[in-house]
Structure formats: structure tokens, C-alpha cells
Amino acid sequence: MRKSYLVPVKDWRTTPLDKAKEGIMDDDDGYTDVQLLPQNDTVVMAELTGCMTRPVYEGRVDIYANANSSMKLGGGVKNGKVIGVETVIRGIERMDALIQEASDGEFAYCAFEVLRRPARQRAGHQKTFLQIVGDGGDLTPAQILLSSRKADRIFSRPRPTKDNNFAQLVDRLSSQADLVGQLRDANDPRDPVSTALVEEYAGILACLDLREGIDAGVSMPASHIVHGGGAFDGMIIDKAGWIMSPVPFDYPDTTVTGLLFTEDEGNFDVLHAKIKEDPRLTEHFRQIGYNGGASFTKGQWVRIRDANRIFVRAVTAMGGVHYMDEPWHKEFGVVVTNVNGNPAIVDPSAANYPNSGGTGYTVIRQGKTGTAVWHTAVAEAALKRQGLIA
């Protein structure tokens, strides 16, 4: 945790956010200065007990309104517990303490997800995809490709294993000239590689459980815990348990989910317009007590803005990074890159588990090199060793 802050803790809620000056980093910006112990294969997993939790590991889950203990769900890693790498769990608890300090006890952190298994990842992407396409009727391959890419920005699509069934599906699809043409036309012209497009489309079919993907028997890798290392999801709640957010968890419209959205006062009117046209936002504001948005006032907007300022700074103070399109998604670990934008270290597990990547592993920076701390495969091995998964 950082020993000093550009903005004093007592001023976190009243001082506008300044991304550049305060070192508020996107998850693509690189790693920051949080200190973590190199654990490698001896990584220790722990249960999050120091703050409110709302595990949502399996199935399709909407999170609105009040986040109290009665809303805990079954399932998850074991008995609905929120489990994660111990250094991340302890970091979340210290972050929660900072949130409560900065708000004089008015706000706290509620964790939704830390580790996430393949079933949850697949279901989350399916739900987001369906929200984006709406009542699309019979979708063309091009529509499936583009809609899945939009969904991927909000809820990452798990990648399938490239087993024989998957290879056969790709070969069969690659021979369909009309299909390849549609995918190529829908794709960015700077990336016209036909085989890669067909592989991506085949993976989407499997993730969405569309018929061809099911028939091919495509499976997701057991090691694919997308939130396997430093990533975690959650939102700020007040003392009554109400979620302090202008959008529900995993809301797919990035025009109103941006990390700095509430810093612009003009967005109060933008949000009101969105509430009227989107039933998901109407339901969100109905459930958090604002009569479907009709009674949502500027004063309440300011309160949500202040909660976001505190949240962003508490994460940053812990050395964490943010996903700018998802105010609920934070990370205490990402890949280190050097000044040229190249990986400073290659995790040896990555070669064996290429579908696990991204948010699943962390390194400690030591100049232009580093020490691998964890990886999704390492996290899964630790879960099995501790009897938390079969």
C-alpha cells in the first residue's frame, strides 16, 4: 500500500478525480507499486470475510439494489464463499478499511466476485451478448461476431481448448466461402486473416452454446479461471446496503459505465435520458428506491459521485488498476510491460495454459525483469490443494 497520497484521505470525496496526476491506471497501462510476496506454486488461497460479499459464481445473475447478508447466493467455489489469492483478499480488506475511513463510515465495499470458474464466465458472456443483440431474430454470422466482440469488452469471452473437435469445426467452417466472406467483411480490414476469424467465430459458437459449437463438443479449459489472480468485482454500498452506482453490475452500455462518468455534471441529464429508454436502468433505479429514476435528484447523483471518488482512490492507494469501462472491475495484478510495451517477463505457466491469460497472473517488477507471482493455473492448483474445488 502506498504510504502517501497526492490527495489526503480526508479530501477523497470532495476532490475531483485527475487520472493523469493521481496515477489512476487502466488495466492496460501496466503494473503499479503495490508490494506482493513472490509465491509461485506455493500461492495461498483465502476466504474474504472482512467485508460484505455477494458471491455470484455460477449462472446468470443480476445485481441491483440492496447488498445485505440475506442476498448471499449458494454455489461458488465452496458453499458460496468468496475465495481468492490471499494477498488479494488481504488487499481488498485493507481497501475496504480505507473506504470506510475516507467516508467516515458512510460507505463500505461489497465484493461480488474474485475467482470465477468457466461456467460462470460462459453464462456471463451469454447474458451480455443477448442484452446487446436484443431481439435480433435470426442472427447472421457477422452479427454474431460483432455482437460477441462488444460483449467481450464487458464480460470476457472464455476461449475454447483447441482439441480435435475444435480443429474439425474450424476446418469445416473454413471451407464455407460465404461464411468466411461474411466474417471478413464484418472484421477490421487491418486484420483480414481468414483462419483466425473462423477460429474466433467457432469459439463464440461454443461460448454461446449455439448448435454448431455444441455438436463439435468444444470444451473450455479447466484452468480457465478468468478472475484467477489479481482481478475482482464489486461496488460501493452505504450503511443500509444500497449500491452506490448509476448502473447495475455488468451493465453492457459503456457510454454510461465509464470510471469518470460521474465527474461530468452534464452526465446527470444523460443518465436520466438513458433511464427512460432502457428498462434495465429503470429497474435498477426502481430497486434502489428512486422510483425508476423519476425521483433521482442531483444531490443523490453527487453522493454516488463521491462514493466513486473514494472507491477509485482506495484501489489506486493499494497499487491497483481499473478497467475504465467497468467501474466494478479492479485488479491488484496485471502483466508488467517495459518502456517498449513488450512483456517484461513471460510466466512459464502461460505456455502450458495459453487460454488462461490476462488478468490471471501477476509479476513483481525488478527493473526490466520480474518474478512470477501467480497464474490462473497456479491459482487453480492451490484451490485443489486446499480442498476448495475438486
Task: Offer a concise description of the structure.
The chain has helices at residues 86-102, 118-133, 141-154, 164-174, 177-186, 194-207, 211-215, 267-277, 279-287, 298-317, 348-352, 376-385; strands at residues 45-47, 52-53, 83-85, 107-113, 231-238, 321-323, 326-331, 362-366, 369-374.
For the record, give the distance between the C-alpha atoms at the N and C termini, rounded to a whole number.
Answer: 34 Å
Strand content: 5-15%
Tell me, what's the shape? globular
Q: Would you tell me the structural class of the helices and strands?
A: alpha+beta
Order of helices and strands: EEEHEHHHHHHEHHHEEHEEH
Strand arrangement in the largest pleated sheet: 2-4-5-7-6
Return Rg in Å: 21 Å
The overall pLDDT average reads 76
Tell me the total number of β-strands: 9
What's the helix count? 12
Unreliably modeled segments: 30-41, 57-61, 64-78, 334-372
Q: What summary fits the major beta sheet?
A: 5 strands, mixed
Q: Percent of residues in helical segments?
A: 25-40%
Q: What features would you describe in this structure?
A:
It is a single chain. By secondary structure, the chain is an alpha+beta fold. It contains twelve helices and nine strands. The strands form three sheets. Strands 2-4-5-7-6 form a five-stranded mixed sheet, with helices on one face. Strands 1-3 form a two-stranded antiparallel sheet. Strands 8-9 form a two-stranded antiparallel sheet. A hairpin with a 2-residue loop joins strand 8 and strand 9 (369-374). Helix 4 (164-174) packs across helix 6 (194-207) and helix 8 crosses helix 9. The longest helix is centred in the last third of the chain and has 20 residues, at 298-317. It is globular and about 65 Å long. It starts with 44 loop residues before the first strand and ends in a 5-residue tail after the last helix.
